[in-house]
């Protein structure tokens, strides 16, 4: 089989479609193979960090995302008893980003914006009902076997990006290990149109509440507040997803209020895992296929988008012949290291902070807030700018 002169991407999630958009922008033809019959409507990530917005801006997608989302210039940590423990404003890093705020918007909005933009572009092809199963590497390309409506089809390309999520078939086909661990507790996300700002006047759109018993976060998106709680191992899925249970959890957020309208309740198993390598020959892993972490701090999808931009910017150079193939090795070197050093560590630390009584954490936050340099450094870390700088340093 002759190799098709294009890049194959498994998965049309946010990471696969950002990779496609950057490649097409660089003049590289792509075929995205998506197992589902349509783009996912699942509401998982809702936070876009400042450097991610800068990247999406380069792809011409930031404006539409911002228009459909909510701008959150500040975020805060709280305790139920004492209110605000610490509050930070991204204005302090406005010298380093064109978007000194988080945008709160569901990831399913981004995939639709990108797909809409790319449709009709000669270099873009997206196939639904196309599940990548087998991967075979040839001298100058990769061939994949696709399961489509009970039949097997084959496609080839110069490179393959496995952006097919946490259960990645591409990662499995290559036999790449995915070590790490699964948290004992599951996480329940309950969405309600109730506006908590009517009863907590100083509540920011992004708010994390420490509590050793039942920490939670309150994240505002247009028209809804998403509240996430840990669910203990002894609490069954059936109980966790029952209407009364969601009511009892929400009732504990603000005493005296009950009978919330619940728009959605979704339960997630949560893991911390990083693939042993992000590259094997002509195949790369990106996004959840390469790394997963708990959602505290909103770094999974953002980190995946950073992977996609890092990788595809190099693929464009190699495609054009302006850089040698060896350039591609820098992707694994940079992105895997910052995933381990930064995304995994920070998301675990965020969970530890929230499940504490808030006393020591609150002291640390006050010290940081009282010092301009430390606030600046802290915001660089929280916004993930520090991780991108670190990746650059790794060469
Ligand atoms: C409750 C919750 C909240 C979160 N909040 C945030 C947040 O605020 N910010 C943040 O940065 N991250 C957050 N995350 C993490 C974020 O949702 C993921 O990191 C993100 O979805 C990863 O994107 P992806 O494109 O890599 O994978 P996915 O979104 O999982 O997309 C993978 C795609 O590949 C397709 N696919 C699967 N197998 C195949 C195959 N064999 N062949 C072809 N296609 C295939 C799937 O159908 C899917 O469309 C959150 C996660 C959860 C659970």
Observed structural traits:
alpha+beta; binds flavin-adenine dinucleotide; 2 domains; seven-stranded mixed sheet; 395 residues; 26% strand
What composes the largest sheet? 7 strands, mixed
* Broad structural category: alpha+beta
List cofactors, ions and other ligands. flavin-adenine dinucleotide
In whole angstroms, the N-to-C terminal distance is 36 Å
Entry summary:
The protein has 2 domains: 250 residues, FAD/NAD(P)-binding domain (3-Layer(bba) Sandwich); 85 residues, D-Amino Acid Oxidase, subunit A, domain 2 (D-Amino Acid Oxidase, Chain A, domain 2, 2-Layer Sandwich).
Overview of this protein structure:
By secondary structure, this protein is an alpha+beta fold. The protein folds into two domains: 7-73 and 96-180 and 273-353 and 377-393, FAD/NAD(P)-binding domain; 184-268, 2-Layer Sandwich (D-Amino Acid Oxidase, Chain A, domain 2), CATH 3.30.9.10. Helix content is 35%, strand content 26%. It contains twelve helices and 22 strands. The strands form five sheets. It has a seven-stranded mixed sheet with strand order 6-5-15-16-17-14-18, with helices on both faces. α1 runs parallel beside α4, α1 packs parallel to α8 (300-320) and α8 runs antiparallel to α9. The protein starts with 6 loop residues before the first strand and ends with a helix. Bound molecules: flavin-adenine dinucleotide (FAD). Flavin-adenine dinucleotide binds next to α1, β9 and α8.
What layout of secondary structure does this protein have?
Blueprint: E1 7-10, H1 14-25, E2 30-33, E3 47-48, H2 50-58, H3 62-68, E4 70-72, E5 74-79, E6 83-89, E7 102-104, H4 107-118, E8 124-127, E9 131-137, E10 142-148, E11 151-157, E12 159-162, H5 169-174, E13 180-182, E14 186-192, E15 206-210, E16 216-221, E17 224-231, H6 237-240, H7 243-253, E18 264-268, E19 271-274, E20 279-280, E21 283-285, E22 291-292, H8 300-320, H9 329-354, H10 359-369, H11 372-382, H12 385-393
Parallel strand pairs: 1-2, 1-12, 2-8, 5-15, 12-21
Antiparallel strand pairs: 3-7, 4-7, 5-6, 9-10, 10-11, 13-19, 14-17, 14-18, 15-16, 16-17, 19-22, 20-21
Helix pairs in contact: 1-4, 1-8, 8-9, 9-12
Bound molecules: flavin-adenine dinucleotide.
């Amino acid at each position: 089989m002759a190799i098709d002169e294009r890049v194959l991407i498994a998965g049309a999630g946010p990471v696969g479609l950002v990779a496609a958009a950057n490649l097409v922008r660089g003049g590289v033809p792509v075929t995205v193979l998506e197992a589902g019959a349509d783009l996912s409507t699942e509401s998982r990530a809702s936070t876009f960090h400042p450097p991610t917005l800068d990247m999406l801006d380069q792809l011409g997608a930031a404006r539409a995302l911002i228009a459909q989302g909510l701008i959150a210039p500040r975020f805060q940590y709280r305790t139920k008893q004492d209110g605000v423990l610490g509050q930070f404003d991204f204005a302090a890093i406005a010298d380093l980003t064109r978007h000194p705020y988080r945008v709160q918007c569901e990831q399913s909005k981004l995939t639709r914006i990108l797909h809409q933009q790319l449709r009709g572009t000669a270099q873009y092809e997206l196939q639904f009902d196309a599940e990548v199963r087998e991967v075979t590497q040839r001298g100058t390309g990769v061939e994949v076997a696709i399961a489509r409506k009970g039949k097997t089809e084959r496609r080839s390309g110069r490179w393959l990006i496995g952006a097919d999520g946490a259960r990645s078939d591409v990662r499995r086909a290559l036999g790449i290990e995915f070590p790490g661990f699964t948290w004992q507790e599951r996480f329940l996300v309950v969405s309600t149109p109730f506006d908590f700002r009517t009863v907590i006047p100083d509540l920011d759109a992004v708010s994390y509440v420490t509590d050793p018993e039942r920490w939670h976060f309150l994240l505002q998106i247009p028209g809804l507040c998403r509240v996430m709680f840990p669910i203990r191992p002894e609490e069954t899925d059936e109980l966790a997803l029952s209407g009364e249970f969601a009511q009892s959890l929400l009732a504990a957020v603000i005493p005296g209020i009950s009978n919330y309208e619940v728009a959605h309740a979704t339960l997630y198993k949560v893991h911390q895992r990083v693939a042993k390598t992000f590259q094997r020959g002509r195949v790369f892993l990106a996004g959840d296929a390469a790394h997963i972490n708990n959602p505290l701090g909103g770094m999974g999808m953002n980190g995946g988008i950073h992977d996609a931009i890092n990788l595809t910017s190099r693929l464009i150079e190699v495609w054009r012949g302006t850089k040698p193939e060896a350039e591609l090795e820098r992707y694994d070197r940079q992105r895997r290291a910052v995933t381990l050093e930064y995304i995994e560590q920070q998301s675990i630390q965020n969970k530890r902070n929230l499940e504490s009584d808030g006393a020591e954490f609150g002291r640390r936050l006050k010290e940081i807030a009282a010092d301009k340099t430390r606030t600046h450094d802290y915001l660089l870390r929280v916004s993930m700018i520090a991780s991108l700088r670190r990746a650059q340093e790794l060469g």
